[in-house]
Each structure stands twice: as C-alpha cells, then as structure tokens.
Amino acid sequence: MTNKDDAIRIRELAKQHNILFGESIPLIASENVLSPLAKELLLSDLGSRYAEGLPGKRYYQGNFYVDQIEILTTELAKKLFRTDYVDVRPISGTNANQAVVFALSHPGDIITTVPLASGAHISSAKFGTVGFRGLNPVNYPFDVETMNIDVDLASKLIRLIKPKIALFGQSVFLFPTPLRELSDALQEADSYVWYDGAHVLGLIAGKRFQDPLREGAHVISGSTHKTLPGPQRGIILGNPKDEEMWEKIQRAVFPGVISNHHLNTMAALGVTLAEHLEFGESYADQVIRNAKRLAQELHTLGFKVLGEKVGFTESHTILVDVKDQGGGRKVAEDLEKANIILNMNLLPYDDQSKPRNPSGIRIGTQEVTRIGMKESEMVEIAGLIKEVAMDKKDPVKVKEKVKELKRQFMGVKYCFHENFDPYRYIELV
User: b/e per residue, 182-214, with b = 16+ CB within 10 A?
Assistant: First the structure.
C-alpha cells in the first residue's frame, strides 16, 4: 500500500465511525454533538494559526481577528455564568484542572477529593494530575445511599486536616454538591474551594443544577463538550479570594500548561455559549427530565439504579449496578453490539484497583436530548437495554430496533440552525 492508500483508509474509517454513531443510541455521559455553526468553525483557517498570551498581548502577529473572537467568547462566558473572571484558553477539562492545581498548590499540600470509586475524575487521583503535582489527596466520606458526600463526616475531616484545596466534582455527578452545608468548615480551614464542573457545566449554565460560584466556590474548571454542547476544550471560571489568586490561575494557563490554545475550537466555543444563552435553560431542563425518566423506567424493569432513595438523579447521569447481569464490562460490550453506546463504571463499593471489571454502567442523556429525544423515547431505550442486558436477546437483532429508533432523530436541536445531521461526514476533497 502507498502512503496515499493509508490516508484514504483513515478517511474511510472516519466515515464508518460517523455511520456507526448515526445508527446508534449515544449514551456516553461525557460526549455531545456540535451545532452546525460551531462545527463549521472547526474547519476554518483558525485551526492552522497560533496565539500565545492574552488579547492585545500576543507573541505572534496575525491575531487581529483572533483577539476579537477571544474577547467576544470571554464576554459571552461572563454573561452565561455571571462572573467577571473567565479564562477560555484551556484546551480540555483536564488541562484546566492542571492549571488550577499548579496555581493554587505546592508539592506536599493536602487536597480533599471525592473517592475515585464514588465518581471522582482521574485527574484528582494519586496517579493523575493531583499526584503528579505531588499533592496528598484525602477522600471525603461518601454516602452510597444518597450518592453524595457525607456532610457531617466531611465537615469534621476538613476542620481536622485543613486542606490547602477542597476539590468537589465528579465524573459520576448525580446530585448537587453540598457546598453551602460545608461552607463553615471550609471557611474555618481557609481552603481554596475548587469545583470541577466538567460534567454539569451546561446544567449549571441552564440554571438547573446548582450555582457553585454563589455557593462558596472560588474557582470552577470544566470541559465544554458534555452537558455544555460545545467543542472539546476547557474553561475556568472564578469567584477568587483576591486578584492575586486569579492572576496565578491565568499565569498557570499560559505559560504554565498551554502554548497555543486551538483557535478554531475557541471560536466554536463562542458560538456554543451564544446558543446556550438562548436555548440552555430549556435544554438543561429536558436533559434532566430525560435522565429521571430513564432511571425510573430502568428501575421499574428490574435494574438496580443507584440513588433510589433520593430520586436516582438530578443531572444527566444515571448509574446502574449490573453485577447480576454479568457486570459492567460485559453489559457495556453486549450493548455496543446492539449499537447502544455507554460505558462500564466503578461503583462506590467496587474495588477501585480493578477498574476494568466494575459492577456498574454509566448512562448520560445529554446527547440523545440534543437530537430531540424526550421522555417517551427514554421508555423505549430502557426497554432496548433490558432486551440485551436482562433478557439476553441477540444484540444483532436488537440493533435493528435501535437503528429504526435513531432514524427518527438525526437533527441537532437547541441551536440557531436546527435539524442539521451531526453524524453526516462532510467531504472537502
């Protein structure tokens, strides 16, 4: 094969990938699809250019229009999240986390976090960003019944160890974090309060989850492609203790953890923020409605859905114990054969040293909501999951039902130009 053949092969694989998701029910809690206007900007010349520093203080020429895009994107974020402190330059959620860690801590400092098996992101683990900085992570006590931090025990822990940073936020984020309930302990400890809102950023912006900056958080980091349906990059929002804190964060972004900040995705983020200002509240509301209905339906069908005593979820995410159906890995792989795409996930009582064989699966409703599905479709999806995971029907046969359902939902909603097929491959050559 020639080099050109290899290039063509890569292109064909990408086309097949588009077809796969065009025929699948996408339930990965950390993914979403772009609006057509945002997607268009990914193909612009911005993707070939560099900009280091802040607008008006660049190290490259040719940034006249880039500066205007960045200023406008920043102003849109300020309006959406109601804060004067915004940095739109991080290129991923973990990259934003790196900047916060480097800005606010030194090796040896104590940081309190949610346990990994209870839903924390890997960047907060000893083997992630926190560990590479040399911090000492201490886990909050976690209540499996409420799927949240145990307020009384966590308050005692915070007062006892006085962490330099108190980190809140999860990859399995079912319910709002009790920031107000922990505020007295956090103030006594004089901790930096950091909220990783990667998963729930769009719900926060849609005023349907919680309001961390008004509840005691000094800084929010996040990715912009989950419940906030934008491009894959990051953002940092602040209610800092003082200007020096925010200056440290901005220096940690550049030159600390990035150089160029991917100008095409920044422009796509700006469009997403504008669209979320217009449609975000109705979108966030429907995302949560869908999650609650899907969770209830799965429970009714006999699945063990976590958080039953507190209503299963108040976010886009559902966590299901499928140990009796063969475990998280087997169920996720079987569902994939039926074109139902979700992921295996550790549960709070799993052995976190064995992440490849967890008891649970994680489900997110933000992408199916984005393409127009509502509560009635959640009932159908729950039934399809049951056919594969519980009834042990042939996934290949169930796939045909999945494809038939998906054919009815092939257009993006909650944006300025609706009904564009997000799974269509755009050919340029």
Answer: beebbeebebbbbbbbbbbbbbbbbebbbebbe
Q: Which residues fall within 8 angstroms of residue 115, CB to CB, at 6 or more apart?
A: 139, 140, 142, 348, 352
| Burial class of residue 122 (count of CB atoms within 10 Å of its CB; 0-12, 13-18, 19+) | middle
Q: Hey, what are 204's tokens?
A: 């926060």
Q: Which domains does the chain have, with CATH numbers?
A: 39-272 (3.40.640.10)
Q: Give the span between the Cα atoms of 346 and 118, in whole angstroms.
A: 7
pLDDT tens sequence across 400-416? 999 999 999 999 999 99
Q: What distances in angstroms separate CA 379 from CA 28, 163, 223, 299, 312, one per listed residue? A: 18, 44, 29, 11, 16
Q: In this structure, what token pair is assigned to residue 151?
A: 């307020």
Cβ atoms of 113 and 313 closer than 8 Å: no
CA distance 218 to 241: 6
Backbone angles phi, psi at 148, to 5 degrees: -155, 170
pLDDT, tens only, 306-336: 999 999 999 999 999 999 999 999 999 999 9
User: CA angle, corner 45, sides to 44 and 48, nearest 5?
Assistant: 125
**H or E element at residue 25:** strand 25-26
